[in-house]
Specification:
The protein contains three helices and six strands; from the N terminus they run αββββαββα. The protein is α+β, with helices and mostly antiparallel strands.
């Protein structure tokens, strides 16, 4: 009987863990303000339009939405968590060329701004670009 209860509790933990990931939405805004919206199975690129840019001319290009694997989603989670923990790479203000991360879980939102030349910013942008090319 104890084994059955243990298996049931383990199954509940796994289901709960999956549900928590489904409620998570990651956003990354690059130095120009282009947005990457990451959910458990998709990556959506939402570029800024010229009217939204500081120059009035810059366009972030064409929007797209691609499917991502659970492994790719986990890699994004890891990159975001590492960036949040690396306080020396953070900026107090959202200035031009900084990167901004946000993690939404249910109604809670966590935000962090990365310095223009930070390793975390470079790694996140490189990984997001590579996902589109795959």
């Amino acid at each position: 009987m104890k084994k059955l209860i243990y298996k049931f509790l383990l199954l509940l933990c796994i289901i709960n863990s999956c549900n928590n990931s489904k409620n998570m939405i990651y956003h990354y805004y690059d130095g120009s303000g282009n947005q990457f919206k990451i959910e458990t199975q998709s990556l959506e690129y939402i570029p800024i339009e010229p009217i939204e840019s500081s120059s009035g001319i810059y366009s972030g290009g064409e929007p797209y939405k691609i499917e991502i694997t659970a492994e790719q989603f986990n890699q994004i989670q890891n990159l975001f968590e590492k960036a949040f923990k690396s306080k020396k790479e953070h900026s107090k203000e959202r200035a031009k060329l900084t990167g901004m991360l946000s993690i939404e879980k249910n109604s809670e939102k966590k935000i962090c701004i990365l310095l223009p030349n930070s390793e975390s910013k470079k790694n996140i942008e490189l990984f997001l670009r590579q996902l589109k090319e795959k």
